[in-house]
Amino acid sequence: MKRTLVMIRHAKSSWANPLQSDFERPLNDRGVHDAPEMGQKLKNLGVVPDLIIASTAKRAKQTAKKIAQAVGYDEQKIQWEEKLYHCIPSVFEEVIYDIDDSVKTVFIVAHNPGITLFVNELSPDFCVDNMPTCGIVAARINAKHWNEFDRTDKEAFLFEYPKKQP
Asked: Is this model's pTM higher than 0.85 or not?
């Protein structure tokens, strides 16, 4: 059975307030623009989620909500995961293992550097030096159950980001 994992780095955040905690940093104007644009790109490609899981950091929450709106996903159904905030790759796997098998396509919205490290482990034919803000990597997974994620073939088939040249 084919499943789709879509990894999304949060959109560009604001550094306007140097005293603000990293966790509370909001999106800047570019981030507010890019997130729905990337969501629309996913929708146009026919990549829509059955589930969105996102970090609870402010910029990740804002990104997830804007992408949800663009793809027609009820933002009230977004699953918030505090442990996705600046996590290591193995935490992404933990989250994936817990996904209900009725879900065929999942979007996960999180942070660097963990997201770059994780997407580079997905497929031997995919590598990126740095996942750009609001960057998207999608992979097909040939698994009957999400908890088989680490033992099954994965193929990265999409790499998009706001400043990518057509």
From this structure: yes
